[in-house]
Amino acid sequence: MLKIIDALPLPHFIVLSLFLGLAPFFPEPHLVEKVRMLFNGELQKPLDIFDLLLHGAPWLLLITKLMLMANRKGEQVS
């Protein structure tokens, strides 16, 4: 799985994070709403948990891609 993430270009992850990760944009991004619900202890409905996973996944993939890139850059320096 990491090889697939490493093979895809970074702009794909950025676009995915901005559009799917933040949609719908108004009145507030879904991810912001779901994270707030999580911290307030209100995230209990299965649909809300699914929304958190759906809108959070692109951000996790982007972070993974950036970590793989940083690790690869660190290996080249050594």
Question: How would you briefly describe this protein structure?
Answer:
The protein has helices at 2-7, 10-19, 30-39, 46-77. It is an all-alpha fold. The chain has a domain at 10-62.
Task: Summarize the structure in words.
With 78 residues, this protein is mainly α. The chain has a domain at 10-62. It contains four helices and no strands. The chain has helices at residues 2-7, 10-19, 30-39, 46-77. Helix 2 (10-19) runs antiparallel to helix 4 and helix 3 packs across helix 4 (46-77). The longest helix has 32 residues, at 46-77.
**Total number of strands:** 0
Q: How many DSSP H or I helices?
A: 4
Helix content: over 70%
Output the radius of gyration.
15 Å
Please give a handful of descriptors for the protein shown:
single chain, 78 residues, mainly alpha
Strand-helix topology:
Blueprint: H1 2-7, H2 10-19, H3 30-39, H4 46-77
Helix pairs in contact: 2-4, 3-4
